[in-house]
Amino acid sequence: MAPSASPAPSEPQSFTPMDKEMLSIGGTCQFLTCDNYDFLPFRCESCRGRFCQDHRTEAGHKCAHAGEWAARRAQQQSNKLPSSSSASSQKPTTLTATQCSHPQCKTFIDTLNSVGVVCPTCNRKYCLKHRIPEDHECNKITPLGARQGSGISQADKARSALGRLKLWSKEKQAAVLPKPKPSTAASRVIALNQLKRTAKGDEKIPMEKRIYLHVEAEANTTTSKLPKGEFWYNKAWSIGRLLDDAARGLQVQNVNNRGGGEEERLRVFHVEGGRLLEFGEKAEDVLGQGNTIVLLRGVGPVSADA
Fold it and tell me: pTM (2 decimals)?
């Protein structure tokens, strides 16, 4: 019986001879003075060379590109740092958030829990508690971006405003002087009745004690949310008390009761009378129904020629 023939080399087998594959596992150390063969060699991440265990470090094989691996790793770590958009969601600190501009406030603003509000007068950003100009004493702060000593002073603005009001009062006096036409008195009554329908005031003041006035805030010396309005007051009040109520009605900052100089003090100008009124005068003695008063700041104390 003839012996069986061996399978043809081209036929696929379920095993692979190992004698030809031994050298494909591992490699020789590439260090110049080392020819050790290592089945599990190490690769240098800086020069990409293959080394044995004794020469695997950059110092061990005197790597020509020493430090490149560390530099790449540092760059990768820096790319993983949170961006400014994601940093806002983290807990705010003095390095990552902005504090309220009020000198005694430590509230962080522009965070998820607290928004910041920019004051249009002083150009600073405050928390919700100090966003109102009166709450951060805006009148005592030099606005950001303003040049010192430039522009018109408060005193010049006040004198200019007072001059315009005196001119306006003369025109007003000429308009309300009695004329021979019989309809003049009737028109004033109609205007007063219209004023009574639109005026606002304290409902506790009896009707017979009310005095109805047109109230305006002078734009160049005061800042108000309401430039003008119609109100009634108690005619027995002093001008000082009437001023306080008028300032609240027009939402004008009033620091008269806090002390300070005349340049911050509010005054009352009586248009029909053409003069500044004293704080101690009684409303019923110096004002008439339907008259107009103007609130202005920094005009100084009442003088004899005012």
Answer: 0.43
Amino acid 216 reads E
Compute the distance between CA of residue 211 and CA of residue 232 in angstroms, rounded to an integer. Answer: 5
For the chain, give me the number of helices (H) and strands (E)? 6, 13
Which residues are CB-contacts of 298 (< 8 A; sequence separation ≥ 6)? Answer: 154, 155, 157, 158, 221, 262, 263, 264, 265
Strands (E), the chain: 27-28, 37-38, 42-43, 50-51, 98-99, 108-109, 117-118, 125-126, 210-217, 228-234, 266-270, 275-277, 292-297
Contact (Cβ atoms closer than 8 angstroms) between residue 268 and residue 247: no
Low pLDDT (below 70) residues in the chain? 1-25, 80-96, 145-184, 220-225, 259-261, 300-306
What lies within 8 Å, CB to CB, of 176 at 6+ separation is: 188, 272
pLDDT of residue 179: 43
CA distance 198 to 247: 18
